[in-house]
Amino acid sequence: MARRRTAAAFAGPQRRFWTARDLLARGGLAPQLRADDDAEGDGAFPDPAWATAGIPTRGHALVFGKRELIGDPEWGFWEEFAAGSTKKTISEADIRLLQNHDPNFFLARTKAPGELGGFSEHKEDKVGTYHEARMIPTSYAYDLAWGLRTGVVSQMSVAFWPMKWSLARVNADGTDADDEKRGTMLLVKHEEIALTDESYVTFPAYVDTDASLRVAGFGMLLEAAGQRTDLNQRASLIEAVLTGTVRDDAAPVLRAALTALVDLAASPEPAQSTRSETDPSRYARSRLLLEMDMRRRQLDV
Q1: What digits encode the pLDDT tens for the residues 53-87?
Q2: What is the DSSP string of 209-223?
Q3: Per-domain residue ranges for the chain?
Q4: pTM of the model
């Protein structure tokens, strides 16, 4: 039995990134200037034609069928994108090509009215989600072109909303368990996502995704409350944070953690004067808020 709530990590936008090494190791193409349009062989860089035709780039923004560890081994989870997971969004959405996910540094979009600033190709292939685009010839796009040409910029990232996914239990190293019940970590397999942008990025941000930060923060709260969890309970708790599904084996841990956190919050800090019981304190408000929040999640305390 499972209970549902709405405050799930997957109820919001996510970001994932791949380095050039990751993409190449998985048979993909790292972000780069298109070789057939690169004027390096003629000795002219940047190509004067870019001023009117745009700056041609290409690369894989997403790789299918490869599992990645999100977060750390203790409070993390494995993730995989299924082939076909971006097919619908590619055909329907107006996806932006950005730098560092910053809308102020726009480069192209799938529904641009012409070739300049548009995607000449955007599709799923046997590796993942592939694009070819002509970046508008802004000053920062020229700077990016230098970065791509020299390899200083070699990472791609996607921003997306999870739409459909399946869950399973796997071994700690991400491999399939002989018996799913013996798997100690959660595997999230994305069956469909809604892309909002694909970005050339300077710094990796995979370990700092929204989902992993929420899971890590939840783990820190449990540890602060003195709650010990076994591997199976931990996987169920991570599932609750990600999807909003609270399973029966996770509910007792959540109840105990709530009680411990309330007791922890109710303890006056050292060297702090004791307030009158009639005065509303932040500890009383914390207890009330926590109890109301837990009741909202339909977990009795």
Answers
A1: 999 999 998 889 989 888 778 878 899 999 999 99
A2: -HHHHHHHHHHHHHH
A3: 2-206, 212-296
A4: 0.73
